[in-house]
Design a protein that fits this description.
The structure is a homodimer of 346-residue chains.
Chain A lengths: L5 H8 L3 H8 L7 H14 L5 H7 L5 E6 L4 H18 L2 E6 L7 H11 L4 E4 L7 H9 L4 E6 L10 E4 L1 H15 L4 E4 L6 H16 L9 E2 L5 H12 L7 E4 L2 H13 L9 E3 L5 H4 L7 E3 L2 H16 L7 E3 L2 E3 L18
Parallel strand pairs in A: 1-2, 1-3, 3-4, 4-5, 5-11, 6-7, 6-8, 8-9
Antiparallel strand pairs in A: 10-12
The structure holds a DNA duplex (16 and 16 nucleotides).
DNA sequence: ATGAAAGCGCTAACAG
DNA sequence: CTGTTAGCGCTTTCAT
């Protein structure tokens, strides 16, 4: 019924409870021989530490918090799954924590959250991870955290992180569009307080530059990471005297909005206009045509971050790690129409 | 920092810790006057019981499990949010538990899960909640649970539940289509092991009957609750010698697939064919045109179920409760085309 | 109706 | 390197 306890293992291995505790928690100071004996007993008894007891007596609850400020259900769930798989594996608990990344007392809110539940540490996802003032405060409160950030390479700023190269992926998508022959490529920006938005814009601009295509102000439209802004932005783009032949939405939800806008105008995607997204969410697969996008494994990224965090908590040194989203070409992108009519008919 | 403890409250209120414990856990045997005093102290000290300590010493961990077998991220998250809001409110923890509802050892898997984490009880969502053999076993193991089921009215079968009238909502959608003038309405079924699929089919058939429209075998297509089956099913429907003028997908994902199929065939929705879904998920809002659907508040439904469960655990008597999804008419449904050409052109 | 004592399973702070 | 002694904050006995 109730699984074996520390004492059971201790008895079985002929050592004290404390020694078992040490082994289980990976402390160095145990003779290899003793460690083996304990490990064997753990195995035989299928011992799993009781999180509640551990949390109650220890300095922290062996539970981490996953902090997010994101409206996208699919994304949240993917992150949660990644975090869970690491937590399950390492015998940690997980608490989900939505928050307002723009709150001025962000660091204090999080500190209270950590203290109330005696959390061991936090995984900070974007855009929370980008509020640097809050990070400083959190560090001052001595709260362990690992960030997930959008950056081309290791920031080496003293805070552990997993960095995702959004710029590179956006570059790849734009190059794909350029290679198809598009010259006028619209860009629908994501929320300004996401660093990823700037990185993606940078990738877009650099690709344009590398292909000798001058960037045009009127083709870059502000918005947030939501369907409606994609819809509205694309509408504006398509209403231009000289509309773009391709539109790159800063994420799939924006791109889905752009797709809907094109269709609502009577345009055919990809024949009249190509559309690309970013993220590889269900939206990108469940539209018609399916969207060309950049695959970003939020689950794997967060799992890595979670493992790093738990390693940090255990006092280990960790190295930052990078991820690259990869281009996924699907039906929503194709060469532009010859020269003739590519205007709407509605 | 760390919040007030039971002893703090006890001292403040001038009673013993045990008395505070009684009040906090809503036991009867406390004089109203004493109870008031304790409650005031709780308020003043902003006392919140420590879940870990509670779980460690008590017979159960003051944590419930939310059990699901569903591929739909949006749906899962909505349920989780509902459960969380009830749990936070009532000082319970929450564990998410995906499972295979078709496993023969389902009840035993869940029992082990409950025992390992010393869970207080389970909220069973569909289709797990419909494996009646497993329910019997769970009850035999004395594991408290509350089910969410698809039924027109209270089943009164001795197990507490929240029931959702899928039949009624499907009826409403079909009537909507019939009133628009559709006579040939395709129906894309959801997975057979979901009772809701049968209920929705029933609603569809009853609406047809009430409008004197004979049901046609070739218009009802089997499938699962996934985009691809919606796509394939709709393709078959549209390839019929006499294709339907409207298609009702058993959920939004199926409907999104049907929408994609129609569009991939060059048809215009809703002018060439109307499409309706079920669930009011983001898919239904983020397509073009947006889908007519039935709004089903999974968050609220699960929150209710969670509150019922916690009440049960506390020894209270609970009454079953029903929910009705409501029709949401959007752009994907319109009257059928006159008599002329309503075939595809691709 | 209330309280005192014991202990849930683990880790912290010390010994040795 | 290993063991001992105390608790963590709560609920369970069992008294009163």
């Amino acid at each position: 019924m109730a699984s074996a306890t520390l004492d059971d293992v201790a008895t079985r291995a002929g050592v004290s409870a404390k020694t078992v505790s040490r082994v289980v928690n990976g402390e160095r100071s145990v003779r290899p021989e003793t460690r083996q004996r304990v490990l064997r007993a753990v195995e035989q008894l299928d011992y799993r530490p009781n999180l509640l007891a551990r949390g109650l007596s220890g300095a922290h609850a062996y539970t981490i918090g996953l902090v997010y400020d994101n409206p996208n259900a699919y994304y949240i769930l993917a992150m949660q799954q990644g975090a869970l798989s690491a937590c399950d594996d390492l015998n940690f608990g997980l608490q989900m924590r939505p928050c307002n990344s723009k709150a001025s007392a962000l660091a204090e809110d999080l500190r209270d959250f950590v203290h109330r539940s005696r959390l061991s540490g936090l995984v900070l996802t974007t855009p929370v991870s980008e509020r640097s003032a809050a990070l400083q405060r959190l560090a001052a409160y001595k709260i362990p955290f690992v960030r997930i950030v959008s950056a081309a390479r290791d920031p080496h700023d003293g805070f552990p992180c997993v960095y995702v190269d959004d710029r590179d992926a956006a570059y790849a998508i734009t190059i794909h569009l350029l290679q198809l022959g598009h010259q006028r490529i619209g860009f629908l920006r994501g929320g300004k307080h996401h660093h990823a938005s700037a990185e993606r814009l940078r990738g877009y601009k650099e690709a344009l530059r590398d292909y000798g295509v001058p960037p045009r102000k009127e083709l870059m439209i502000d918005g947030d990471y939501v369907f409606d802004d994609g819809f509205r932005g694309a509408r504006r783009l398509l209403d231009l005297a000289e509309p773009p032949t391709a539109i790159f939405g800063c994420n799939d939800e924006i791109a889905a909005g752009a797709l809907a806008a094109a269709q609502s105008t009577g345009l055919h995607v990809p024949y009249d206009v190509s559309i690309a997204g970013f993220e590889d969410s269900p939206f990108s697969r469940h539209s018609w045509p399916p969207l060309t996008t950049a695959r970003q494994r939020a689950d794997i990224i967060v799992e890595r971050a979670t493992r790093m965090l738990i390693a940090c908590i255990g006092g280990e040194d960790v190295e930052n790690e990078g991820f690259n989203p990869e281009l996924v070409v699907r039906g929503s992108t194709a060469p532009p129409r010859p020269k003739s009519r590519q205007r709407k008919r509605a």
